[in-house]
Design goal:
There is one protein chain. The chain has two domains: 1-33 and 99-144, Alpha-1-antitrypsin, domain 1 (Roll); 37-80, no CATH class. The protein contains four helices and six strands; from the N terminus they run ααββαβαβββ. The protein has a two-stranded parallel sheet with strand order 1-4. It is elongated, with a radius of gyration of 21 Å. By secondary structure, it is of the alpha+beta class.
Length: 144
């Protein structure tokens, strides 16, 4: 199936049904180092849900700003997902190597992501969808 067709099916009910079919397995995953970013303006969404006053001239922000007319111009949301070998995100100088423990464990399934893929991050307790994304550009890991 095409990614956009699959993405259209990703309802909470579909994911709950899919999750019920999963079984615990040891999986060895090979994937490119990936950084996915998204940025959205939430003005319209907030306005539709009743948050209007903050965007209007004369909005009440006296608890934040003592004087002057202040209002919200744009309310932005940015999400960044980094897929790597578990290094801290700001540690670009660290050598890139897989965990020796993970490399030694035998895997029931091996999966190499060499094509564009879709990912879903769900909260384990209630299945709430936290993030859905598509990685289209795959880059080879840099040798160090």
């Amino acid at each position: 199936p095409r990614l956009k067709d699959l993405r259209a099916q990703l309802t909470p009910a579909f994911l709950a049904k899919l999750h019920a079919l999963l079984r615990r397995r040891t999986v060895r995953v090979e994937l490119p180092l990936t950084k996915a970013e998204a940025r959205y303006t939430l003005n319209t969404t907030l306005f539709r849900t009743g948050v209007r006053q903050a965007f209007m001239p004369g909005a009440e922000f006296s608890g934040l700003v003592p004087t002057g007319e202040v209002r919200v111009g744009d309310f932005l949301h940015k999400a960044t997902l980094v897929l790597d070998e578990g290094r801290p995100a700001d540690d670009d100088a660290a050598p890139r190597q897989a965990s020796s423990t993970a490399a030694q464990q035998p895997a029931d399934v091996e999966l190499a992501l060499t094509r564009p893929f879709l990912f879903v991050l769900r909260r384990s307790g209630d299945g709430c969808i936290l993030l859905v994304g598509v990685v289209r550009e795959l880059k080879e890991p840099q040798q160090q």
